[in-house]
Amino acid sequence: MAGSEAAWQAANAGVQVVIHEMRPKVGTFAHQSGDLAEMVCSNSFRSDDDEQNAVGLLHWEMRAANGLIMAMADAHQLPAGGALAVDREAFAGAVTARLHAHPNVRIEAGEITALPDSGHWIVATGPLTSPSLGAAIAEATGTDRLAFFDAIAPIVYTESIDMSVAWEQSRYDKGDTQEEQRAYINCPMTKDQYEAFIDALLAAEKTEFHEGETATYFDGCLPIEVMAERGRETLRFGPMKPVGLTNAHDPQTKAYAVVQLRRDNALGTLYNIVGFQTKMKYGAQTSVFKMIPGLENASFARLGGIHRNTFLNSPTLLDDQMRLKSRPNLRFAGQVTGVEGYVESAAMGLLAGRLAAAEIQGRALESPSGTTATGALIHHITGGADAKTFQPMNVNFGLFPAVEGLKGGRRGRKDRYKAYTDRAKADFTNWLQDQEVTL
Q: What are the MnmG N-terminal domain coordinates in residue numbering (predicted)?
């Protein structure tokens, strides 16, 4: 995501760009293809609300900056209520094709195993940095690699879902069209079914970490069994919450818990189980997930899994131009900088590409104001966060400076968020216009 967006932005500024991608020559545990920008954990870019949601605002900023990732996401969008979900294969294929076709871009397949000493480089290695490059990064930064574990949700063939039990509905019927309002498949559970499911989840055989391998989880992508270990009701108040849904087969009966599935491709032949990232072993997954009403005969296109992610302690290592302080010919972008999420990673690529192009062309370019979503993220990771407790971060309004004169608390939230987004859009627009004047 980040490397693709960085290349696109720099190339559009008139800079010749070479993308080094190790796949398909060198694969990873999670990737299935050699395409750029392949989505592995989910097919969702989360909320597309640019007035009341920080990630939706980030969508808006990237669209305003002619972002490739957002353009291809919009072109391959799937119904998902108020969220932006995409056909992941078509999306990655389109990103790859657009970059191949760009006259200023060349793509070279092959693994980079060491950090170059000269030239302008953006290191956007994504969530699965190869061991050799990871070791080179650790040596260059003088610190041990920081890491956390990330998990993947399973994908089910639509034809194997029992629609006499499940029904189509977005939570609270959200969406402007009937297709949007029916974007999710819902599987209801009674209290007894939920309790039996939790028992099986807790007892299932899990993937064990390698000896000496330690890391934390990112809270936004916890395996469901880890959530269940925190309390038997945790899932029922998280990904399995039953609110805003009415069983089309039995409207009078309120489900105790609901499992939702979201469309994963344009054909509608695949659905992923929302929020069901897992580290259960494959055999355990099939037996436990088939306890879900409507999925008793489910056939899985992909089972869940867990993988290690690498990220830098960016507040101590990167300057405000996203350069490694000790080796300023190297910029870092994407998840390796300590942002979490597809959109956040791509946004850091967008910024790194523009900053690199400006430096190569002898132009001065500062990061956007911290009042914008992009600026709030870059300011957080390059100085706003506490280096001692630095963890990967999603974009959120807690990273934004307050707007004076607005009411705090939940009652004032709607007006406050609208003020944040209005201010951000104006400031980001000014940032883009300043670059046009410079060019």
A: 2-363
Element (H, E) at 137: helix 131-141
Q: What is the DSSP letter of 376?
A: H
In the numeric block, the tokens 């999420």 are attached to 341
3-class SS of residue 264? coil
Query: pLDDT-derived band of residue 212, with 50, 70 and 90 as boundaries?
Result: very low
Which residue ranges make up each domain of the chain?
Answer: 2-146+311-438, 154-303
Percent helix / strand / coil, the chain, rounded to 5: 40, 20, 45
The structure's pTM equals 0.76
Level-2 CATH architecture, domain 2-146+311-438? 3-Layer(bba) Sandwich (3.50)
Helix H, strand E, coil C: the string for 9-51 is: HHHHCCCCEEEEECCCCCCCCCCCCCCCCCCCCCCEEEECCCC
Cis peptide before 103 (omega within 30 of 0): no
Q: What is the chain's mean pLDDT, rounded?
A: 89
154-303: CATH number: 2.40.30.260
Q: What own/partner pairs with CB < 8 Å and gap ≥ 24 does 356-362 have? A: 356/6, 356/10, 356/15, 356/120, 356/122, 356/331, 357/9, 357/10, 357/13, 357/14, 357/15, 358/13, 358/435, 358/438, 359/120, 359/321, 360/10, 360/15, 360/120, 361/13, 361/14, 361/15
pLDDT tens-digit profile of 73-123? 999 999 998 899 999 999 999 999 999 999 999 999 999 999 999 999 999
Tens-digit pLDDT profile for residues 316-325 = 999 999 999 9
In the beta sheet, which residues pair with residue 318? Answer: 324
